[in-house]
Write a structure and sequence with these properties.
By secondary structure, the protein is an alpha/beta fold. The chain folds into two domains: 12-228 and 346-458, Aminopeptidase; 232-342, Alpha-Beta Plaits (2-Layer Sandwich), CATH 3.30.70.360. The chain is built from 15 helices and twelve strands. The strands form three sheets. Strands 1-2-4-3-5-12 form a six-stranded mixed β-sheet, covered by helices on one side. Strand 3, helix 7 and strand 4 (178-183) form a beta-alpha-beta unit. Helix 3 (27-40) runs antiparallel to helix 14 and helix 7 runs parallel beside helix 13 (413-435). It is globular, with a radius of gyration of 26 Å. The termini are far apart.
């Protein structure tokens, strides 16, 4: 699930928010975030780490390159040719788990109650930085066939090349630290996002930093700050229940499909009352079983998106009410079933700039010099708000995301070369994080500071999206509330009159 949205060329501070309302509400937060980033000096840090002479780091990169060329490129191709959708990736997971087991990792399958999720821990790790690598492997659900149109087929082999190369380095040089590889299924589907479920059950706990690769139509990195790749999302299923009848006597039933159709009409009618940055997308996965039977059950499945979670909550209220209105209008009932959400994550410049500098040093193609919109290193936002990480995005495809062309590119030189560079860059960054205390300190400083500022940002947005007053009652209630607040303020400013005159 990866998109790149075009932005005007803005200073990094302004690029931190997508809409004018966000930028205005968060002006003070942006100012302090800019000061934080100047203190961290991510660009200077990247220059120091990537240009220094380091035979040990270069050996780690060479080992990742060797693993990719000798075994893991073929594994990537094989998984590409055998796509499996979310929570059904049994063949792919076995291939990855067997390879990790053969390279001194202990694999625990079925973590967090998800059958195709796993954690692999390096057997020879020692106390020190815990270096995390996230693997994905699910395919897209296509109407013609399932397919790897986001190149998740490569993420496992790429991540393992980096993980094994740096794990061997830790043991060979007796450097303190360990490696944890986490397999996260079903990135392309809810309910609910697997990373959120795994995070809530403590699977990611104890890891100090994460790396993850992803397909890309260019070589890029996000700006520091907070955001998400694909807007904040609520996944909601609206289940309408009616009563069956023969279609020749349809008045004896209640048509749930008609309720869904009315619901879609209601949603379309709302679009002009919703801010233009919103995206509301729905399908009808269930609409009846036979034309001659009044459908007594129909389902609408919606992704409701907005650049921030605060205004998204207002949109959700409107959409939920549109569903209730459709049910009332058709004599049916509706059950509103939220099943997943994705939220802003934290983007750490100290990690992003080092990753980007390594990809450029390795000769990545289609390089975008300007930072793109801020986004957490993983799409749910839940993990990237709590643990720093970085997503590597070398140019791996000339096709668009979620296309058959992107899948085809995974099997050709453009994919193979980009995947190899991701693996080498990830290995280099993990080496630096394990061996450079200043790097770790700057990542911690920036991440904790940005996380604190995010809380203030959300509070500022709550004041920026007033709900329109509808009807005299709402206006009278507001005026009464304002009068009470004014009276309370006056009482707090005027000292009380003593009942007994003071003694002189």
């Amino acid at each position: 699930m990866r998109f790149t949205f075009a932005l005007l060329v803005l200073p990094v501070a302004l690029a931190a928010q997508e809409t004018p309302t966000q930028r205005a509400a968060a002006a003070d937060v942006v100012r302090r975030m800019t000061e934080l980033h100047k203190t961290v000096d991510a660009a200077g840090l990247a220059t120091r780490l990537t240009t220094r002479v380091s035979p040990a780091r270069d050996a780690v990169m060479a080992r990742a390159d060797e693993l990719w060329k000798s075994e893991l490129q073929a594994m990537s191709d094989d998984i590409t040719k055998h796509p499996e959708i979310g929570f059904k990736e049994t063949r792919s997971v076995k291939i990855l788990a067997d390879y990790l087991t053969a390279h001194d990792f202990t694999v625990e399958m079925g973590v967090a109650g998800l059958s195709t999720a796993f954690v692999a821990r390096y057997n020879k790790g020692t106390p020190g930085p815990n270096l995390g690598v996230v693997l994905e492997y699910d395919a897209l659900r296509g109407t013609v066939r399932d397919y790897h149109g986001d190149q998740h087929s490569a993420q496992g082999p790429v991540g393992m090349a980096a993980a094994i190369a740096v794990a061997e380095f830790l043991t060979r040089t007796k450097t303190p630290g360990t490696v944890t590889v986490i397999g996260t299924p079903a990135e392309e589907m809810m309910p609910p996002p697997s990373k959120t479920v795994m995070h809530e059950k403590g699977v990611f706990t104890g890891v100090d930093v994460f790396v993850r690769s992803h397909s890309s139509t260019n070589t890029q990195r996000p700006a520091p700050g907070f955001g998400t790749c694909c807007l904040n999302i609520d996944g909601v299923r609206y289940v309408f229940t009616g009563a069956p009848a023969h279609q020749m006597m349809s008045w004896e039933g209640r048509d749930a499909l008609s309720a869904v159709v009315r619901f879609f009409t209601n949603v379309d009618g709302l679009r002009k009352s919703i801010r233009p940055e919103a995206r509301i997308q729905g399908i009808i996965p269930e609409g009846g079983k036979a034309p001659n039977v009044v459908p007594d059950r129909a389902v609408a499945d919606f992704y409701i998106r907005y650049p921030d979670e605060v205004y998204l909550a207002q949109i959700r209220q409107l959409i939920d009410d549109a569903a209730r209105g459709a049910a009332l209008a058709t004599g049916t009932k509706v059950s509103i079933e939220p099943y997943g959400s994705m939220r802003d994550g934290i983007s750490t410049g100290a990690l992003n700039e080092v990753a980007f500098a390594y990809l450029k040093k390795l000769g990545a193609s289609q390089v975008l010099s300007e930072p793109q919109k801020p986004q957490g290193w993983e799409e749910t936002g839940s993990v990237s708000r709590d643990i720093p990480g970085v997503g590597f995005s070398a140019h791996t495809s000339n096709g668009g995301f979620h296309t058959y062309e992107m899948e085809a590119d995974a099997l050709t030189d453009v994919g193979h070369r980009g995947f190899r560079l991701d693996a080498m860059g990830m290995a280099a960054l993990l080496h630096d994080f394990a061996t450079d205390a200043e790097f770790r300190a700057r990542v911690k400083q920036e991440f904790s500071g940005t996380r604190a500022l995010f809380g203030e940002y959300v509070q500022a947005l709550r004041k920026a999206y007033p709900v329109p007053e509808v009807g005299a009652e709402a206006r009278e209630a507001r005026e009464a509330r304002e009068a009470r607040e004014a009276n309370n303020l006056m009482r707090s400013l005027v000292p009380p009159v003593p009942l007994v005159p003071p003694l002189l």
